[in-house]
Amino acid sequence: MGQGLKNRGYTREDVDERRKAVEDFSSARLGSVAGYTVDPEGAKSNIENMIGCTQIPLGYVGPVKVNGEYAEGEFLVPMATTEGALIASVNRGCSLINSGGGANVRVIGDNMTRAPVFRVDGVAHALDVIDWIGENIESLKDAAESTTRRGKLLGIEAFPNGRNLFLRFSYHTADAMGMNMCTIATEAASRVIEENTGAVMISVSGNMCTDKKPAAMNMISGRGKTVIADCIIPNAEIEDRTKASVDAIVETNYRKNLVGSAMAGSLGQNAHVANMLAAMFIATGQDPAQVVEGSMTSTLCENADGDLYISVRIPALEVGSVGGGTKLPTQGEALDIMDCRGEGKALKLAEIMAVAVLAGELSTLGAQSAGHLGKAHAELGR
Questions:
Q1: Which of 44, 70, 265, 344 has the maximum number of C-beta atoms within 10 A of its C-beta?
Q2: Of 153, 177, 203, which residue constitutes the final position of a domain?
């Protein structure tokens, strides 16, 4: 297979040529891959060596009532998945949430991080560098923000360790998820640090960001949007729709999500938050790899005077309404379902996603408490 075919161009003819080369090399026939609506030219910032498109079934849940600061009203939520029973389950959760008057949701944190690692001479040098940063934060802010129209440097945390100095830069990235924005801005600021302190940047990512990996730092301090959603579901609705009791759901959450997760050393205390996030991320053009950070969600349940109180805290919901995969046509249309495409919509998107996560947790805990999880998958997921 000729290497010269790589990245030759972004016309449909280029895509056809590469796909034919793959077919010749592998003996596979890619007729389904060849059927797509994406303009290759429009996708050139999203993929290299394009040979077509992979399709994933798209469905929706809702309407679900959202009582948020940025999202207020009833919303349909698009989800792309190949897992049978997932959408049916989340849809039941949406109905339960509606029976309680909707879910309250707030974004309590909003910052994207990038944490380069520098080589220093030792602890004394590290502290000198930290002092210099504190005295010259405005110069670093100017350098970082000169690279972006949207990004604003919020602060820099320092973590010295031996001859290593980690600096965790935090940014406000407006309606973009902002990972690329933060990387470019951090590189610019880091060059200023190098020139003035003698510290040497080894990598613009020193893994204290922490991107696309589970990390206690993100669980505690947050990354992207930190969102909390909660609601109270009347006991009668719980018993009628889940065939479980409030106390049974509270106990299941305690023994499964809290004790079980602690026993396993899990950085997430939830039933299956990654399921809902992955389906919504794929549908709306977010980075699916960042589902791992959103999966560190904690789900809590209490008996509230006989009714069920349930909440989710998503510490690192890294989503945007502009840039990245949101520019692709089907992903943009999915965002349009929620009126979440374009400027000024990222926080609204985060609130709606958090409520859908809450719905999925509520329904699955109900099914597990009633012993119906296997039955649902047997009926819908095979």
A1: 70
A2: 203
pLDDT tens digits, 56-80? 999 999 999 999 999 999 999 999 9
User: Which of 287, 302, 333, 339 is the catalytic position?
Assistant: 287
Q: How far is CA 139 from CA 127, 201, 202, 250, 349, in A?
A: 19, 18, 21, 52, 34
Domain coverage including residue 199 = 116-203
- For the stretch 167-185, pLDDT in tens is 999 999 999 999 999 999 9
Instruction: Note whether 190 and 79 are within 8 A (CB).
Output: no
State yes or no: is 377 an active-site residue.
Answer: yes
What's the CA gap between 201 and 133, in Å, rounded? 14
End-to-end Cα, the chain, rounded Å:
38
Asked, for residue 10, whether it belongs to a domain, the answer is: yes
Q: Are residues 149 and 98 in the same domain?
A: no
Q: Is the pTM of this model over 0.85?
A: yes
CATH of the domain at 185: 3.30.70.420
Measured distance CA(235)–CA(193) in Å, rounded: 59
Note if 83 is an active site residue. yes
172 flagged as catalytic: no
Q: Which of 16, 17, 83, 251 is catalytic?
A: 83
Residue 22 amino acid letter = V
Q: pLDDT tens digits for 127-147?
A: 999 999 999 999 999 999 999
